[in-house]
Amino acid sequence: MIPRHWTLLGLAQWLTGAVAALIGLGVIGLYASGLLPDMALALILGALFMAAIWFAADEDGLLAWLVRRYEVERDRPRRRD
Q: Where are the transmembrane segments (predicted)?
């Protein structure tokens, strides 16, 4: 269960962390199954994917920018004609 006090950004960062972990495990799984024969390549790919997701989920990263933009649009008063 997700705590009530979490913000939208906190939830989004938690979910991207979970995705980064799954990608890391997926790359390890590709290496273990033999589909990715070079261990160094597996480590480099896993690190690159996880670093990209971590950067996106950073406090000042792309995800934070998108969430803040959504919250501003959501909270903007609407004109009623």
A: 12-32, 39-57
